[in-house]
Amino acid sequence: MVQTKFAGSNLHFKPEDILPSVSTDCVIFGLDNGKLKVLLLKRDIEPSRGLWALPGGFVLDFEELEMSAMRTLHDTTGMSNVFMEQVQAFGQVHRFPWRRVITVVYYALIKYRTDDLRAGPDASEINWFEMADLPELVFDHKHILTVTLQHLQNKVRSEPIGFELLPPKFTLTQLQELYEAVLRTTFDTRNFRKKLLKMNLLEQLDETQIGVAHRAARLYRFNPNIYQKLKEKGFTFEL
């Protein structure tokens, strides 16, 4: 798993530093009460003013692609040390109405939050939307979301990246809800728990939920060090 670290985006650049034909877009996923959501901006500039879009922007001449995506993530959420990975490039000739623009898409998995989100100077609003209830999107962003979700679904079945969406301590029910939300399916609770616990990647804590109306459930946490050691011995995460 890759953790991005970014010190900040107070960059000073001139208009000529902008590469007008290369951009990065970020698909930022979060999990809210068992529902997979994506962070979108309402554009306040043309073209397509008033429509919702993925956070993104043009790459600067002195930036690596990943740095550009990290800058977008930081400017939008204020976060930097999170999981981020490149999906692919999208370069259909007419994807942007004014000129040829090729965009490289990254996705990030963050802990769901509604505070400190920033729309930025080119947007009038920022909000989370359920993947099952998206507004009209600009350009080819709906297609980008579809491809990125498929990428995420394949990834969570083969690597334990889903834990990036959960709090540090979680219940087995929250873990199951996560995988059901991402994979858009349902699991038999008994079989799901048996399979995950058999992998020995979870630490059972001597703690239970606090402040819940129902019976407090046992809390667990994912141990990345154990996963890395098992991986070096040939362990394969398969869900």
Automatic annotation (TrEMBL):
A molecular function GO annotation: 8-oxo-7,8-dihydrodeoxyguanosine triphosphate pyrophosphatase activity
Q: Per the database record, which ranges form the Nudix hydrolase domain? A: 19-153
Q: Which UniProt keywords apply?
A: Hydrolase
Highest taxon above the source species: Bacteria
Which Pfam families does UniProt cross-reference here?
Answer: NUDIX, WHD_NrtR
- Its top-level enzyme class, in one word, is hydrolase
Q: What is its EC number?
A: 3.6.1.55
Q: Any keyword Hydrolase?
A: yes
The protein depicted here goes by the name: 8-oxo-dGTP diphosphatase
